[in-house]
Design goal:
The chain is of the alpha+beta class. The chain contains 6 helices and 10 strands; from the N terminus they run ββββαααβαββαββαβ. The strands form 3 sheets. It has a 4-stranded antiparallel sheet with strand order 2-1-4-3. Strand 8 and strand 9 form a beta hairpin. The radius of gyration is 20 Å and the shape is flat. The termini are far apart. The model has no long low-confidence stretch (mean pLDDT about 75).
């Protein structure tokens, strides 16, 4: 599963906090998980249907490519399309793994809220939950966009990043993004670009540093740049091996600098 929303309610059913699209409870391809907390409970709403359809489509397309290997296409064309599917599957597996990680983080944050009664102490945890939900939603949307078209406007990715930055303001993040390009890029790279910026944002939040970021497209080569106002302890092990390979093969690079 991937796309989820969250609501926190009091014991009498009063909504204390919920994400914008939590909506009403429905049984259509939706799973609800309830977690008791002090003076209320938390409900996670997970959309099971959309991602399952994507997985089924990928499996069907991969099976058809393997079946037609000897009869319909030349070997080179088959391998090219097969590799493209493998890349999508690697991205999908990385998204699934990352979703589970973010879900675990949210559950841990909820457990820390449970013993608290002071709203000032609770608020930072809610802000972190909002940021994690925002990142997960934008990443999932990028993946779905990559299924709809081979190309995507770089400004669509920039908009998703701006939304994440806005949702991280309550965590004390002062971040900006510059992206003047209007070009179309390989849609599969959108997820990777989003992850790179997310990594930069996490570093800035953890180190209470301002962040300036830039996305530049030049002759189909994409470079993501991040500059921190203060010295930070940069985490470079965020990406899985499969995503690192996609960064190398997808004509995309990133650079992070400290303002010494």
């Amino acid at each position: 599963t991937m796309s989820f929303d969250l609501a926190i309610l009091s014991k009498n059913g009063e909504v204390i906090y919920k994400t914008e699209k939590f909506g009403n409870i429905s049984n259509n391809s939706t799973r609800y998980s309830k977690y008791d907390i002090r003076n209320g409970y938390t409900v996670l709403k997970e959309d099971l249907g959309v991602l399952d359809n994507v997985k089924n489509e990928l499996n069907i397309r991969q099976a058809l490519l393997e079946k037609n290997n000897k009869t319909l296409l030349t070997q080179n064309k088959i391998m090219s399309e097969y590799y493209s599917l493998q890349s999508q599957n690697e991205i999908l597996n990385a998204i699934d793994k990352d979703y589970k990680n973010k879900n675990d983080q949210i559950i841990e944050l909820i457990s820390k809220i449970e013993p608290l009664t002071d709203k000032k102490e609770i608020y930072p945890y809610l802000a972190r939950i909002k940021f994690l939900v925002s990142y997960t939603k934008q990443k999932y949307n990028c993946f779905l966009n990559s299924k709809l078209s081979d190309k995507i406007e770089i400004q669509t990715i920039a908009l998703a990043i701006h939304i994440m930055m806005k949702d991280a303001i309550n965590l004390g993040l002062n971040a900006s993004l510059l992206c003047n390009s209007m070009e179309l890029i390989d849609s599969k790279l959108s997820v990777i670009i989003l992850d790179i910026i997310y990594m930069m944002m996490e570093n800035a939040i953890d180190n209470s540093s301002d962040l300036f970021s830039n996305i530049d497209v030049d002759d189909n080569n994409i470079k993501v740049f991040g500059l921190y106002k203060d010295n930070v302890n940069i985490k470079m092990d965020y990406f899985s091996n499969s995503v690192n390979n996609l960064i190398e093969l997808g004509q995309i690079s990133y650079e992070i600098k400290k303002n010494d």
